[in-house]
Every structure is written in structure tokens, then in C-alpha cells.
Amino acid sequence: MLDLRPTLSVALPAVKSLPDCADFSKTVQPFLPQLYDLPQKVFDNINNLEALQHVYLSTNPLVTALAFSLFVTPVVFIVSEINKNYSQVDRLWSILPVIYNSHYALWAHLAGLPTQRMDHVMAVTILWGARLTFNYWRKGGYTVGSEDYRWNIVKDYAGPVVMFIFNIVFISLAQNILLFAITSPTYVLLLCSRVTGNELTFYDSVFSKLIFVLVLMEFFADQQQWNFHGAKDAYKKTAKVPKEYGYTREQLDRGFNTSGLWAWSRHPNFAAEQGVWLALYQWSCSESETFVNWCFGAALSYLILFQASTWLTELLSAQKYPEYKIYRERVGRFLPKVATQSMDAPTADGKANDQQKQEPAKAVKATGTTKRK
């Protein structure tokens, strides 16, 4: 019978203080060589479940998570190149972070470490993943052949050769590493639990609740967007404003949602999404009594990715919707502006707009007909 609880010194650093838990040279660097031997160990024991459990517990949990992300990378690359569909990582976006944080919680349970903090992190991450997976599913993200419309723009701009390189470096590799890296603060929290024990701290209470609130914000933002597009589709089919949704004809003619949370932020779901992983990072800083730790790079990279993604989204929206320029002037991208204005308020050139609106009305009086939109 193999000992399933090996000496923790094999897999974890000997931390004596909370700041030690966030020291890269002590908690990460010494264990990176385990990555080189891990594939061979797994292969040698592939048919022995008990031996695989021993390998799992004798390997640093951060290294195991990193190894899994590197394993997923060539899989999504091959599938995306075969299908010429670059949304393979998109389909895993809501799943992989849940796997990583659940892995840290499972490892702590099997290794006999304090687990209350890990269970809290796992719980809020599962809620985050369930919401995002559901929203992606109902929009058709998991249907065969579905692909983020923005990838077509990138493909047309880059060309096949550049797109192939971009797929290797960024879509398949960098994004997979990022999804692993944004959960790395959980590893710091796991180490902190060895110092503080199984009692929950003030920071555990604050940040777990904060993440829960941010997930709720994402849920309401998603639902408001879903309702708007449902009303918009019904309006296009019948040319009548569906009363059950509560939108005006002007709002539906505008083409994009500017009500609810979207009246205060142009991307409230994106704002909350970034907030979730910033909160997890700050949780690790607070618990380890550090202002900044090595996980900062992952949090910053996540913010940069969303800046770039949102820039492209808004570029396309501005080309599609004439009033989007006004929306950008009045409403903040992620956070509300000090002087946020409703899209229902009159514009500075209101007179000119009124004249434009009166012209079709005069035409209707003259001809007695109008077009159905």
C-alpha cells in the first residue's frame, strides 16, 4: 500500500511566515524542475490508480496545474487548425479556471491541509464558471461550427500564415497559460493556510463575498443583454415594440442596449469579470501581508487582454451603430463616468436631430405611407 500522504516537503515549500507564502524564489522556483519529470511519471503509472495518486500528491500543485495547461495547449491548437475555428479556448474559458481552483482544493484535502479557505475559493469559482458557461451555451457557443465573430475579422486582416503563428503563440499557448496563471493566487492562499490554520480570516470573508457580488453583477448584466436582444429580434420580425420587455421604440432602433447596468457602463459584464480575478489576486496579497506578489503579472495580463478585446468590439460596434459614438462620450467603458449621461437625454445638436426626425414625418404626410423597419 502506497502512502498517499507523502512528506509535504516534497511538494510544498517550508514557509515560516505569511510573506514567505508569496515569495517566488521560495514557493515556485525550487519546484519547477518537477515539471520535466512529471509526464514520464504519469506515463509509467498510467495503469496504476494508486501510484498516480502518489504522483499527484508528491508533485507541487502549482506545477501540476501548469503541466495541465501545457497539455491542453496542443490539443486546442490541433483542433482549431483542423476545423479552422479559433474559438476552442473560448469554449474552455469558463471551465479551466474552475478545474484549476478545484484542483488546489482537492490537493489540500488529500494532503491533510487546512481546507476552509480553499473550499471558499472553489465555491465562488464554481459559481463564476456556472454563470459564464450557461451564458455561453444559451448564445450558441457550444454548437458545432460556432465561432466568435471577431476571429473572422482577425483572420481577414492577418492572412493564413500570420494567423497560423498567432494561433500557436497567442490563441492556443498564451491564453491557456493565462487561464492557469489567473488562478495562481489560490496557490498562495493554500500556502497561507499552512501558517494561519483552518480558521477563516477577515480577508477570507471580505473577498469571497466580493467575488460573489461581482458574479451576481455579471449575471444581471448578461440577463439584461439577453432580454434586450430578445426584444430586438421580436421587433425586427414584427416591426412592433414588444411590450413584455419594457423597451421603447427608440431604444430598439438604436440597436444596442443602453438600459439597466448598461446605462452606467458600456461593458458591465467585462468590468465585473476583471474584478473577479483582481479580487482573487488582492485576496492573496492581503492574506500574505504583501502589497504586490508574483501573481501580479497574471492579473495585469488579464486586464490587458480585456482592453484589447474591448477595443476591437467597440471598433466594430461603432461601425455598425451610428449612435455608438454618443454612447462612448456619455458612458464609461468599464467604470461609470463622473458625469454619466443617459442616452435618452438630448444631444448638443438636438435641433439638427429633430429636423432629421421631422423630415421622414413630412414625407409620410405627403405620401401617406411609411416603411416598416
Automatic annotation (TrEMBL):
Keywords: Membrane, Transmembrane, Transmembrane helix. The chain crosses the membrane at residues 62-80, 92-114, 157-182. Residues 342-373 are annotated as: Disordered. GO terms for cellular component: membrane. Residues 351-362 have a biased composition (Basic and acidic residues). The keyword Cytoplasm does not apply. The keyword Transmembrane helix applies. This is DUF1295-domain-containing protein.
